[in-house]
Amino acid sequence: MVLDISLLNLQCIDCLLGLRSLDNDSVDVVFTSPPYANRRKNSYDSIPDKQYVQWFMPIAFEIYRILKPTGSFFLNLQSHCYQGERTLYVYKLIIELQEITGFKFIDEYVWYKSASPRKKNARLRDAWEPIFHFAIDKPYVDYEAVQFKSSSTFANKRGYVSLDSVTGNIGGYHKIADQIEGFTEPDNILYFPTALLVKDGKEFIHPAKFPLELAQFFVKRYCPTNGTVCDPFMGSGMTALAALIDKKQCIGFDNKQYYCKMTEKRIKSYEPPDQKPNPSSKGANKPIRSTFSVNELPKG
């Protein structure tokens, strides 16, 4: 599989400047994981938690401006703990995005990524992160894009039962619908363990990567054919790779040239898992031909 590099517009620039250069109503999906407050200061710019909402809001207004009426904005951001309690900046930001920016708060996904257990702590180990879904109006959805086959798919849904006296379950189609084998949609708990990143290689070291499969899920379901995906904080390039695999245009910004080069290398070296060449085969080490280049940071 050869990726169409012409679909990618990657710029080494501050995301606010980059977003301001885009047209109104030009992007179908914004999927991003911005820097966490007061975290990983040696790897990228870190914003104090008390200043985080003020820092992010100009970016939020630009995302709102560039998003199509049918577009979706996905924000992967988890609050950290400090001095024994969970910080609140993420929750404050979510409220501001809905009340001030004007986004509709569509849903919250749980990305279950597993974690190593630890001893003697009042808080249990974080094993998941939230992904918040915002939209301007009714978002585009490809309902069949991420369906899977299940032996317990509901059929003949003609009514609603609020309480099942046998099971004690509240809500659902307990007595009215049959369960059959067929295709259905997943729920909003997404299982993409970070252990998958072990396969990523030492050349793609980044302190806050998410799995390719996570980005693919949202690109496939919420970005239409010939649509455009944007990641204002491109990082190691997972969003770009997901978009190009699905033959969607992608716009990405990162103010660290090191990470822009990492994205370039990721795209150039990508090989589908089921199409990796045998090292002993002829031409296995032949480099991928590409005219892709990363825009340099503007001088001054």
Structure write-up:
With 300 residues, this protein is of the alpha/beta class. It folds into 2 domains: 5-142 and 187-275, 3-Layer(aba) Sandwich (Rossmann fold); 148-184, no CATH class. It contains 6 helices and 12 strands. The chain has helices at 15-20, 52-66, 89-101, 212-222, 238-245, 257-269; strands at 8-11, 27-32, 67-76, 81-82, 85-86, 104-112, 128-135, 148-155, 178-184, 189-191, 228-231, 249-253. The strands form 3 sheets. Strands 1-12-11-2-3-7-6-10 form an 8-stranded mixed beta sheet. It has a two-stranded antiparallel sheet with strand order 4-5. α2 crosses α3 and α4 crosses α5. It is globular and about 60 Å long. The two termini are 40 Å apart. 32% of the residues are buried. Residues 277-300 have low confidence and may be disordered.
